[in-house]
Write a structure and sequence with these properties.
- The chain is mainly alpha-helical.
- It has one domain.
- It contains five helices and no strands.
- It has helices spanning about 5-20, 25-35, 40-55, 60-65, 75-85.
- The protein is globular.
- InterPro entries: TPR-like_helical_dom_sf.
């Protein structure tokens, strides 16, 4: 995702979700990638499913701290989640 190869990333995530359909971080990555690809309704649906599993995700720092600490990918993922429709508090 850091290289903006979103179609390739989506393909890899979808394959992973076939094997493990309820893995939270895969669902979050999928929502973020769909957000970057500007697939509005599909991105929003993926985001809603992800947030159902992660109701404690309220602010950007929640994502940075809990899900991808010290990762250079945190900001592009957060940006994709926002594009998918996430409205972080604060």
């Amino acid at each position: 995702m850091g290289q903006e190869k979103y179609e390739e990333a989506l393909e890899a995530i979808d394959k992973a979700l076939l094997r493990h359909p309820d893995v939270g971080h895969h669902l979050g990555f999928r929502a973020a990638v769909l957000g970057h690809l500007e697939r509005g309704p599909e991105a929003k649906a993926a985001l809603d499913r992800y947030l159902t599993l992660r109701p404690n995700l309220k602010v950007r720092d929640d994502y940075r701290r809990i899900f991808v600490p010290n990762s250079a990918l945190a900001d592009p993922i957060i940006e994709g989640l926002v594009k998918a429709g996430w409205e972080p508090e604060g």
